[in-house]
Amino acid sequence: MTLSPSQRLASIDDLLLYRLGRLSGVAGAMVVRLCEGGHGITRREWAVIGQLYENGSLPPSVLAERMHRDRARTSRNLTALINKQLVLRTIPAHDRRSALVSLTPAGQQLYEALMPRIQAINSQILSALQPDEAARFDEALARMQLRAQALLAELGPDLPKANRRQGQRKDVL
What we know:
By secondary structure, the protein is mainly α. The protein has 7 helices and 2 strands; from the N terminus they run αααααββαα. It has a single domain (5-126), classed as Orthogonal Bundle (Arc Repressor Mutant, subunit A), CATH 1.10.10. It has a two-stranded antiparallel ribbon. The N and C termini lie far apart (41 Å).
């Protein structure tokens, strides 16, 4: 019996996250070209626009949580979108310490123009699956997401913190 890559896990090419990354890289490149080439926004800025379109006005911290991103990166994306006049930041009169961000009419128009094209790319990729396979895939993805969250809670405290500036560890040599 031949093992599938997910059963084998013998090389980097068999690893789930590597395979998903390759798929995301190819499919994401099309989205990047639509966003950057067609509309002058980054893929991350597109995600902000999508969240604001679907959820309305949000505090920046809530937006960052919804997107599973840190507040600093979200703030940089918001600043860029404000400069492009696609997002508006308002300070409520009743609470001068808080802010809300929302789409401008131009931001809403951009979403409405871009979303159908991105949906079409997703539909074309998913057309490789039969309807019952797509339903099973969605269920499996949901289960894997829950398992990854549980695993992060289990292993997270023992994993080293990210430090890209550190370079190669001395004890590796």
